[in-house]
Amino acid sequence: MPLSRSLLSISSRDHQEGHTPPTEEPDSPMLPPPSSNITGSSSWSAMLPELLSEIIRRVEDTEDHWPHRRDVVTCACVSKKWREITQDIVRSPRNSGNITFPSCLKLPGPREVSNQCLIKRNKRTSTFYLYLALTPSFTDKGKFLLAARRFRTGAYTEYIISLDADDFSQASNAYVGKLRSDFLGTNFTVYDSQPPHNGAKPSHGKASRRFASKQISPQVPAGNFEVGHVSYKFNLLKSRGPRRMITTLHCPSSSSSAGICSDQMPCDVTKMMKKPIRDGSGLTILKNKAPRWHEHLQCWCLNFHGRVTVASVKNFQLVATVDQSQPSGKGDEETVLLQFGKVGDDTFTMDFRQPLSAFQAFAICLASFGTKLACE
């Protein structure tokens, strides 16, 4: 329950018991003024830490919808004790695995476990919806995260990714990024609406432009920023087997963010963030995990641990050959960082972990939709 609603319920209960609530101005804060004793300490600050933790945890655990940032900020601004407890509970997705705010969609996922998501497809409108799974069931929608719609522009295909399931304009504030294919539909480019690092410049060309007019607000980037590629290998001999894919992404290095370079020497993180990526550093290279042929079933098999139930050429698991989130920069080809598979006619699962973000994982999975005759 958000903090504002809990306080309103307390206020309504007092009114039923015969107490007249104080008159509020329309723009007054939701928190009632705390009473102070002789020593000047606030009654809110003196609240038991266990009760404070429970209040803030309920605000942060509202997983079925985006909690209002105002509620969390209100909790952190009451006193120093509230701020410390809020900082201890509300953590980044890398540490907690929770996706609380829309800004978390572009942060790396958890390291030890995967974030389990569902993708719902609407064939009639060519729209795809990403949900954070709240239960093990494949039928529950969960918490809405992102939506994407497929548009055909001449011989090319674009998937516009948005925070709003009904607004897919690149000029909208809900616009997150897009995925664009080449003529054959075998090579895809991932574009971000925001610069991936300080000093990044928008990609050149008509395909990366967000607005038709050049006269726009300087606060809004005029172009998209190229942050990754997804490529499917040709299968000219038509040999049996699933699609083979290679993904290259710009992912932040955990060692760099900690202030430690690859040679274990301290480095200036500010300078590293302001330096544009030109030499390929910071790249994470993923490839699909090779399946095995099952003689009894006469099909290619991968262990999805119960998260995929329908055989499909779209199903895949990605492992890292180069992973900049690791101190050595070398990927673990046994650890699955992203898996995608079919569980119904228009329902798919998407499980991802660090160094991928929800936005990056969703863009990679979108590339799997569509027929690729040259790769199958």
TrEMBL record:
Residues 1-39 are annotated as: Disordered. Residues 105-371 form the Tubby C-terminal domain. PROSITE patterns: TUB_1 (PS01200). GO terms for biological process: regulation of DNA-templated transcription. Residues 1-11 have a biased composition (Low complexity). Pfam families: Tub (PF01167). Belongs to the TUB family. This is Tubby C-terminal domain-containing protein. It comes from Brassica carinata.
